[in-house]
Specification:
The complex is a heterodimer of chains A (332) and B (557).
Chain A lengths: L12 H34 L17 H30 L6 E8 L2 E5 L5 E3 L1 E5 L4 E7 L4 E5 L4 E5 L5 E5 L5 E7 L12 E6 L1 H11 L1 H4 L16 H11 L25 E3 L5 E3 L2 H9 L22 H14 L8
Parallel strand pairs in A: 1-5, 4-10
Antiparallel strand pairs in A: 1-2, 2-3, 5-8, 6-7, 6-9, 9-10, 11-12
Helix pairs in contact in A: 1-2, 5-7, 6-7
Chain B lengths: L20 H5 L4 H29 L10 H37 L7 H23 L13 H5 L4 H28 L12 H33 L12 H35 L6 H14 L15 H29 L8 H24 L1 H7 L3 H31 L1 E2 L2 H28 L13 H31 L1 E2 L11 H4 L15 E2 L14 E2 L14
Antiparallel strand pairs in B: 1-2, 3-4
Helix pairs in contact in B: 2-3, 2-4, 2-15, 3-4, 3-6, 3-7, 3-8, 3-13, 4-6, 6-7, 7-8, 7-9, 8-10, 8-11, 8-13, 9-10, 10-11, 11-13, 11-14, 13-14, 14-15
The chains are: A alpha+beta (332), B mainly alpha (557).
């Protein structure tokens, strides 16, 4: 009953690496801290005013050699630690390939998670052990932050832009999930758990929680309740419900529109010069505010969908457009 | 205040030569303005401390039971806004900078005495706006006012509080301009740059930050109020703004602002350690230039508050690199202070206890900053209690220990009375022990992932939180004692009759009356020796030239 931990569990590959760095910096801090703390006490006691038994001769008040020593040694250590920490950070947070992707939407005050096969969860995120996971984050109101201490990782969920984080859960179990960016009244209740399952159990879980199994659906896909729809298929439904197919992916369309099957992952030339990568951010912006970046050679005829599409639907639409390019949904 | 009202017979001092309320509220005397600031910020400190006490009481149990979530959020906002903008930023510069700067450099006042008084009025007007906002229902944005929460979601008088901070910010800018010009133009003859006490160097570096940084945060916060009021899209993405832009602008000031709090304390520590070790500060030039290095590099590290926002990796790498570098000048200072104690004659009086306590706490605060300079560990620790512990070690363990050291060290000069030494030492010990008990457990909580600004938390963190709350009551007692005994000493403390009760070097001790003359010096002193000249006790640092005899009519002999 006396539950009194002093360190968090370490349940991801990245977490183990970050822990090693953490304890190395802590060791350095303890060494330098002890030098100063015990040094100060020792000196202040030894040279107390009424102690005349100590040698106070040759008490210089400047010495370039010692100044250089206590400047350059800490500097060298700082540079080494900087190199290590930066390399580790770049390895973890730079875009990686071959992942299982989950979209997470933060809103006051809950976490909404969407799996590629269409399974959805609130305040719980179920993940497979031993596989690289990418969490794509966005917020639909204020800034939140998605923090899993057991994995030693965190990313802000910012309204209007997708942020990504990568990690490899290693140990099956249940772990804390927190919002760590203050987001209003119930900030401290925007918590949940991450459930890491062994691979087979995770597959079983996915099957049981596919939308057909729970009949969960957004209003626009409500008619399809009962059908087993992946995230991309849900996106296709939204695509039709919003009437996107009147022009896009319509061979009989009267207007000239960019080919969506070639959007994902390509360098798209822009009207007025330059290119943009066809990624989540570009697709999102082009739906909400089509005039922001116009594909070279096309006119902007599309009405803006700002305020008409929810963050959930945007995620579904992105998954759909991604699937058109044959990229599938993540690495699964 | 301390001495009896001036009756016309004894030598007048700055406290008793005029005593009307108007003579205080309309004074141009830098020493009286310092006292005005001292009284005001002491009140704000107690208010901010009260909010902190409520926060710690709430966190004594894992459940959110004492306060509602809303009240809790308002309490940590109140605590942060009051402590940062109404106490820490003005603390040492506006009180001790004002009081000491002219005395230390041999000037009769600061360069712009009227601007100095105006600064206090701006500060009080700002404080009034903030307090009205807090008492009219409070605000729950956190002291950081992150958008779009603050601009589009938060309720309450956010705009009024922002106007208050804007005004208080200008008070800070006025003080900074005043000090820069004073240090450049009003040093006494012989007071060369490298004869300046290190406190003056620290104030110079601080003033640079105040003048260059404060306008940015003032305008940024005003833009939040503009977005809130007129719905003009600046930071809210729904209005076409960028919420991360706010963080860049905010931290461009608010990171250097940490140095506004800590640099003056470092200046105080140089003075106190030297005076109570009876030694010249070791490596004077290194300590002086490290202040400037901190002020300059400190302007270029703001992005380390934003590693988890998804800012560019390359920007992050540069910010991380500069953050590692900015640790070095602080290390240089610490080692030089240790070398100052080496072979000194150390007197364990209250100011020295605070200075030694400063070194202990500041070193822990500084070294845990390394975990945050490292990007990989920063992201895990950011917005957890590790951050809370880290910045309290720097800004409370560092800045407030420095403030208390200064308060005890210069108390006899400010009031003409001595504080009770025994009580002083007891309070210093209580503050040190209470502080560590309060904040050290928070490092552990933070590494385990406990988020900051949480009203409730998982059961397994209860023990460490109870420890922290227990420590905070010891710390609270440690802060309350000086309030009581220093007030007591104004009437009952031992009257100080000598100029230099500590046997310290420096113009303010050697040439200024026990309680300073309204005009500081009879005539402008001439400085002949370097600062901290403890090796030559027989040589005064400066002297007041004799007046030349005035000969009327005849030839000048």
């Amino acid at each position: 009953m006396w539950n009194f931990p002093l360190v968090p569990p370490t349940a991801s590959k990245e977490g183990a690496d970050i822990s090693l760095l953490y304890w190395t910096i802590t060791l350095l801090a303890v060494v330098f801290g002890s030098i100063v703390l015990f040094g100060v006490i020792y000196l202040a006691v030894r040279y107390r005013a009424d102690n005349n038994a100590v040698d106070r001769s040759n008490a210089t008040d400047s010495d370039l050699r010692v100044e250089l020593a206590w400047t350059l040694i800490p500097l060298a250590l700082a540079l080494i630690m900087f190199g290590w920490a930066t390399k580790l950070y770049a390895d973890i947070y730079a875009p990686r390939e071959g992942y299982y992707e989950v979209f997470v939407i933060g809103k006051q005050w809950m976490w909404h998670c969407q799996h590629p096969n269409g399974a959805r969860e609130n305040n719980v995120l179920t993940l497979p052990a031993g596989r690289l996971v990418k969490v794509s984050l966005i917020s639909q109101d204020v800034i939140h932050a998605f923090s899993i201490p057991a994995f030693r990782i965190k990313r802000d969920a910012v309204p209007g832009r997708y942020n990504a984080m990568y990690f490899t859960p290693t140990k099956p179990g249940e772990y804390h999930l927190f919002c760590t960016e203050y987001c209003g009244t119930k900030h401290s209740e925007m918590i949940g758990k991450v459930v890491v399952l062994p691979e087979e159990e995770f597959q079983k879980w996915l099957d049981q929680n596919a939308p057909g199994a729970t009949a969960a659906a957004t209003p626009t896909t409500a008619g399809a309740a009962g059908a087993r729809l992946t995230l991309a298929q849900q996106g296709e439904q939204v695509f039709k419900a919003l009437g996107c197919n009147a022009c896009h992916l319509n061979p009989n369309s009267a207007v000239k529109v960019p080919d969506l099957t070639k959007t994902w992952g390509s360098e798209i030339p822009l009207e007025g010069g330059g290119t943009v990568k066809g990624d989540e951010a570009y697709i999102r912006e082009s739906i909400l505010n089509p005039g922001a970046k116009i594909h070279a050679g096309y006119q902007n005829l599309m009405p803006p969908y700002q305020g008409q599409v929810s963050e959930e639907q945007l995620v579904q639409l992105i998954a759909y457009i991604k699937s058109l390019a044959g990229a599938g949904n993540g690495g699964s | 205040m301390a001495t009896a009202t001036y009756t016309g017979t004894e030598k007048p001092n700055y406290l008793n030569w005029k005593t009307s309320v108007a003579s205080w509220l309309l004074t141009y005397d830098h020493k009286r303005i310092a006292i005005l600031y001292l009284v005001s910020i002491s009140v704000f400190f107690l208010l901010g401390g009260l909010a902190a006490a409520l926060i710690r009481m709430e966190l004594a149990t894992p459940q959110g039971d004492l306060l509602t979530s809303d009240v809790y959020n308002k309490m940590f906002t109140t605590h942060g806004v009051i402590m940062i903008f109404l106490f820490l930023i003005p603390s040492i510069p506006a009180v001790f900078g004002n009081f000491l700067l002219p005395l230390m450099i041999g000037a009769r006042d600061v360069a712009f005495p009227r601007l100095n008084l105006l600064s206090w009025y701006f500060f009080m007007a700002g404080a009034a706006c903030v307090l009205i906002a807090l008492f009219r229902g409070g605000i729950d944005t956190g002291w950081t006012f992150y958008t779009p929460y603050s601009s589009s979601f938060a309720k309450g008088e956010v705009s009024l509080a922002i106007v208050g901070i804007f005004l208080a910010g200008f008070a800070s800018i006025f003080t900074g301009i005043n000090f820069l010009v004073t240090i450049h133009k009003m040093r006494a003859p012989g007071m060369t740059w490298f004869r300046l006490p290190l406190f003056v160097w620290a104030m110079y570096a601080t003033s640079l930050i105040q003048v260059l940084g404060t306008p940015v945060v003032a305008i940024t916060l005003l833009l939040v109020a503009v977005e809130r009021t007129f719905r003009i899209g600046i930071f809210d993405p729904n209005l076409g703004g960028d919420p991360i832009l706010y963080q860049h602008l905010f931290w461009f000031y608010s990171h250097p602002a940490v140095y506004i709090m800590i640099l003056p304390a470092m200046g105080v520590i140089s003075e106190v350690i030297s005076a109570f070790s009876k030694r010249r500060v070791f490596g004077y030039h290194f300590v002086a230039f490290s202040s400037l290095a901190i002020a300059i590099i400190g302007f270029l590290v703001w992005g380390h508050h934003m590693f988890s926002t998804g800012q560019s990796m390359y920007a992050g790498i540069v910010f991380s690199f500069l953050t590692w570098i900015v640790a070095i000048p602080s290390a240089i200072k610490t080692f030089n202070w240790m070398a100052t104690i080496w072979k000194g004659r150390v007197h364990w009086d209250t100011p020295m206890l605070y200075a030694l306590g400063f070194m202990g706490l500041f070193v822990i605060g500084g070294l845990t900053g390394l975990h945050l300079a490292a990007m990989a560990t920063n992201v895990h620790l950011t917005d957890t209690y590790f951050i809370v512990a880290h910045f309290h070690y720097v800004m409370v363990g560092g800045a407030i220990m420095g403030y208390l050291a200064a308060l005890h060290f210069w108390w006899p000069k400010m009031t003409g009375r001595m504080y009770p030494e025994g009580w002083g030492k007891l309070a210093a010990m209580l503050v040190f022990v209470g502080f560590n008990l309060t904040f050290f457990p928070q490092f552990i909580l933070g590494y385990m992932g406990m988020p900051r600004r949480y009203h409730s938390y998982p059961e397994e963190w209860a023990v460490l939180n109870v420890l922290s709350t227990a420590g905070s009551s010891v710390l609270g007692l440690g802060y309350l004692l000086p309030v009581i005994y220093l007030t007591w000493s104004l009437k009952y403390g031992k009257v100080v009759t000598e100029r230099n009760p500590w046997g310290a070097r420096g113009l303010e001790w050697e040439l200024v009356d026990p309680v300073p003359d309204p005009h500081n010096f009879e005539r402008t002193p001439i400085v002949t020796r370097p600062a901290y000249d403890y090796n030559h006790p027989e040589e005064p640092t400066a002297f007041i030239p004799k007046p030349r005899p005035v000969v009327v009519g005849g030839k000048d002999g």
